[in-house]
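Posting this for the archive.
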Amino acid sequence: MTQEEKRNRFREEFRYANEFVLDPGRFTPETFEPYNSLVTLVTLEVVFYAFEPEGDEVQKQLSELEQFRRRLVTRENGEKAWDIWGEQIPVYGEVGDFDMTYTNPDFRPLLVPYLAGDQTAVKGNIIVIAGGGYAMRCNAYEGFNVAEYYRSNGYNAYVLQRRISPYHPANAHLDLQRAVRVIRSRAAKGEIGHGDRIAAIGFSGGGATIYGAVMDHYGHMLPDRYDPSYKPDETDHVDSDLQAALYIYGTGKSIQTTENPHIPPCFMVTGDLDEYHADTDSLLRYSEMKEKGLDAEVHIFSRQHHGFGLGDGNCDSMKSAPEAIPGVELWPKLSLAFLERTLK
């Protein structure tokens, strides 16, 4: 097999992966989870760490990936993903090449719902945005598992599958804005509870996505400000303000430049050895929030690096035997206390 043939084999499998891993509700857990875990591993190796296709180990993993994909079993009564845009999708900026990216040209942003059983007793709604910068979606340990955690604690949770590279980051911010509006619209129709209580939690690039939406895509701001060819529909006129924002090792540099009059209370978690300086950014964000008289909470764990997920050890797909991180595993419970105080 030539080098070009190997690269084409990679491209083909990634196209399959980009389609199948977005919506776990379509498949039985026992067939989906092995596929999703291996997809995450191979994507990190190929897209982030630029392993060459001729590597024997990567070739072996691709063969295993194909086998797992062929074993996927469709689930009849799984929760269906929500397509958040209508006939149009606003696009900001130039769109680059899709070759060897973690998305497909025909991708449509969506919400994967994890709904609480009793909507009359639900505590609120929380949008989960996995990290991976703006290059991939680390759903395996910063998405689906996080949504399950908040659902088990009384919330409706939704994993946002946002646009990523080769799209400009502003498109992910538009997707979050639209997601808030879709949830609020469904709540107004009585389909789910508490449209007045919507939070978002983002990991790394997911946190940056929340920050971008809070800064530039809030309230009743319309998408045609970023794409003049887009025609706003009824959903675009729904308020897109968040009632709470949770930034997990990912936030912005400063809130001083935004004109948003409704900056939501924020909860921030990071480690003091964060490679992307989320610790210093979080302290700056905290100081600015307090100066403005806004609610903010920050937790910085000592000797911790970027990307610890829920703190249960399921945070690095390159590990074969994950181990819980003492102390860090407490932050999800702290976030529940924050949400209880904030979403009232």
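The radius of gyration is 20 Å. Residues 268 and 298 are 5 Å apart (CA to CA).
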